[in-house]
Amino acid sequence: MNQVSGINILVGDDHHVIFQGIVAMLSHDDHSEQPDYADSIDAITSRLADTHYDLLILDLNLAGTNSLEYVPSFMDLAPDLKIIIFSSYNNKKLLEKAQALNVNGYLLKSTDEETFRAAIRTVMQGGVYFDIENVDGFEQESDLHRFNHVVELSAREKELASLIISGNNEQELAELLFISKNTVRTHKKNIFRKLNVSGTFGLIKYIQANSEVF
To answer: What is d(CA 214, CA 208) in angstroms, rounded to the nearest whole number?
Structure first.
């Protein structure tokens, strides 16, 4: 069976371009349903509460939040829901954590269309699809290290970090975010501490080096 048909799919990812890519990969099947999109944990929860979905394609890092922590609540909302993790994190420890939560699959975002569609077919037929052969890092910790640091940032801290690297000074940051300069300084200290960087230049280098996870 080559088609992915009659499946109600929800894509949970905070980058709309990923959703567009998934839609494109499924577009060759005339019988497939148009996937729905949610860009946050709250949006996923709301969608699952209101609509029946057969499959959730889930990013690991949603706006700085570790989505694995919410898998049990997603399953409580929709007991028959299948979940495939679709992530750029090429790390075996994250894959094993996903397996421990009884998700149905784990794919890298570098996956080709044929593999992607095969994974969906396998999962929807009651199987599991963990692309272990493509997952490096049995000893590698770099992806896990970056992931753990980024998800520690709050939504406000991530917003502030983006504004900092855009060249805004403390007064401008305070005005843009409607907070005091002292609060700006506190947030900056927390960001630098959590990411283990020194100053604005260090933050810029960190985000440039880790754009795929930030």
So the answer is: 9
Per-residue pLDDT tens over the stretch 28-49: 665 467 899 999 999 999 999 9
What 3-state class would DSSP assign to 87? strand
The whole-number pLDDT of residue 151 equals 62
The 10s digit of each residue's pLDDT in 149-186 is 566 778 788 888 888 877 788 898 999 888 999 999 99
Q: Establish how many alpha carbons lie within 13 A of residue 77's alpha carbon, considering only the half-sphere containing its beta carbon.
A: 21
Tokens of 118: 């095969």
Q: Give me the domains of the chain, ranges plus CATH numbers.
A: 9-134 (3.40.50.2300), 152-209 (1.10.10.10)
Answer yes or no: are the C-beta atoms of 12 and 59 closer than 8 Å. yes
How far, in Å, CA of 16 to CA of 185, rounded? Answer: 32
Q: Are strands 65-66 and 82-87 parallel, antiparallel or unpaired?
A: unpaired
Residues contacting residue 203 through CB under 8 Å, at least 6 positions apart = 161, 164, 165, 191, 192, 195, 197
What are the residues whose beta carbons fall under 8 Å from the beta carbon of 189, sequence distance 6 or more?
none
Q: Which residues pair with 62 in a beta bridge?
A: 65
Q: Say if residues 106 and 84 touch (Cβ distance below 8 Å).
A: yes
Distance set, CA 135 to CA 61, 106, 112, 126 (Å)? 18, 10, 14, 23
Residue keyed to tokens 């959590």: 194
pTM of the model: 0.65
Choose among 35, 31, 2, 4: nearest CA to 18.
35
Q: Cα separations (Å) of 2 from 5, 11, 108? A: 9, 21, 21
